Protein 1
Amino acid sequence: MTDVRTPQRFVARLKQAWRGLSTGAMAAVGAPRIASPDLVDADLPQLRARLLDCLVGRGGEASARARAAELGQTYLGLSVAGRKRFMQLLASDFDIDRAAAADAAAHALKAWQSGEAKSVRKAEAALRAALEPPRARLLAQFTAMGEGVKFLVDRRAELAEWAKEDPAFAALASDLHELFAAWFDLGFLELRRITWESPAALLERLAAYEAVHAVRDWADLKNRLDSDRRYFAFFHPRMPLEPLIFVEVALVKGLAGNVHDLLDDKAPLGDPKAADTAIFYSITNAQRGLAGISFGGFLIKRVVETLKAEFPNLKTFATLSPIPGFRSWLEARIAEGMPRLLLAEERKALAAALAGPGEKPASANKGTLKRALADASWIDKPALRAALQAPLSRACAQYLLEAKRSDGNALDPVAHFHLSNGARVERLNWCADRSAKGLKQSAGLMVNYLYRLSDIEANHEAYASEGTVAVASGVRGLL
């Protein structure tokens, strides 16, 4: 599938949409074009003047839109080095005036001490204004442009990547996070079902954004949109063809324990009206620039409500989820010589499975498990696969139930997402994802998280307040 996550098409569309306005702005202000795409030192005074013009806001709304278009056009024409210099100028020269903020804080303190209501309101308004960095107002001006919101979302994705090298970029990304927290309030979002009749451009985007199980081709995508499947996404009115987050659902009988069966486009079509279970097998945040803006839990709840209304026979709502951090955690535990990974009889069985025909098994040690997993072909060797099932399932249960971050939440990011939304760890599935990605991330294991509607609130509260993981007895028994 075409990877529309790369910005070329969006940039080309944006440049075309903004070109007329940008040209008008250049004529109005008489500003020469930036000389170098790398934004050399000689270009910076001119850029600073244009940014100040945007802040002053002379000429009314039309002029403000034109100036914003000119800046956006300029930015899109820069190299990566030029874009970084643009953002560094924005971060440094258009930050909070801390002296003015301190003065406003002192006036506010005096007003609070006086207790005079009118003075308090005036001082607090002045303090709020002083604490707003001018760059935040500059960034917000892009929202008046066609596709300006998407432009800013992509800029935050850039800034988050660059923040590793310069904290100034992190400050700008934080400014955008504050803006997005208000703009992308759940009340503004629209839930849509995606079908094969949806616009081709949207289908192409969904295929490219899919982060859990890559879409192989159009036949694969069509299978995921068939009558026994459902595909839902959240959209923002200012980004009508850009999904924010989407979920893929299979309508089946009983818990699904193998993603390959769900994605098999040659499998017979199921009857959705006969299904008793909805399996959420992929949830993808489509916009990297919206990281930290939470949609997922609300999306699941809305989709459950929608499915129950359409199919009253559905009794079970569960996921078939990846366990992306398990393999790296396991390898770290092996390196530490962690106990409980292999029982004595498991070491012997594993050593025997590793031995070639007619070979005497090597003595089992702490490196035996690492050696067994080193070659991904273990999944195709029945004896080795059987020898690994018990120790890897036990280790995975330990990872999901006991491995914690410093804040007490589950170490695995997918586990944390579902547990914080009130799900229960229901079942581990052996050899559920034999893809190269599945073997690399989780040794082929997947997990079902169960959303039992009557327990969601209690599970959420227990996890949020105490870090308690709701878990079925079968999984706990693996420990």
Protein 2
Amino acid sequence: MAKKNKRNREEERETEAVDIPAAPPPEPEKSTPILEPAQKAAAVIVALGTDKASLLYQHMDSDEIEQVTLEVAKLGFIDAETTEGVLNEFYQMCMMNKAVTEGGLEYARSVLEKAFGGATANELLAKVTKSLKNREFAFLNKAREKDLFTALQYERPQTIALVLSYVAPEKAAAVIEQLEGRRQIKVVESMAQMDSASPTAIKIIESEMQKRFDNIFVSNSNVKVGGIDFVANVMNNIDRSSEKSIFDGLSSRNEELAEEIRKRMFVFEDIVTMDDRSVQRFVRDCDPKDLVLALKAANQEVANKLFGNMSSRMAESIRDDLEITSNVRMKDVEEAQSRIVAIIRGLEEQGEIVIMKGGKDDIIA
């Protein structure tokens, strides 16, 4: 029995002495290289092969060919998985551009959703929407105001409106100021009523403008241009005599549109930009009840401007009323602010007060 126990203990020690090989370490995951846009373009060129790549080169300018060729030379080795991902992205972008060009963003959405699913479609459209917002006609940005007027002065008002909708409000205002009175009115009206422009219309206009300017960027997508907010910004930068002439003519043609533009030009919060004497003047004509309602939703800067230009007695009365006035409808507040703005605009038209516009007014005390 003792021998048997001894033999069992020896067998256990032999078993413990045997080395059990450790499991091999897991292979490190292969990381997909992150390629820059120029490198992706080079990868597409390489994947297409020389024959198809040469056809693609025919649609590129010399600078683009030089840049892509340089990237191709530097590219080195790219694994099959990365190449497949780049080609898939390239295919999606081609599909997206074709769909947007043929039918606009909504048509493109339906095509992309069917082809790639909702998530990918939204991602692609987000990219193209951001790109469209950032696309401006380069030749318009480089053109001087005088040259732009010379190029546009004999065009139809609708054409002038479309072109000016792509430039900064200050530059658009400078061009409009040089137009004859009736054409000023028609151009402003066209810009205010404009919403979007079709690719065909833009290409036609750009084709004509290309004779006068270099490096024109051809747009192939609907881009939001013009509109009432844009016109209000333009009018804020235009000289007083042109502004009055335009509004007089526009009011006789479309009073509702003219009034809507005026509303966008000066809002209640713009009171902070007025000089103290002008604020004191319009406050005298305001109904104290309107001032109380208007101040219920006013920011502190506006409130300080108003209280600082009231008599101490009036300011104390307004503050007391503000404390006891509660449960006010936002609609009532906005209407009160609109009535105050109407008083301000009326006094300005009569020449009794001054509204600062676009940094173009110098005030002499």
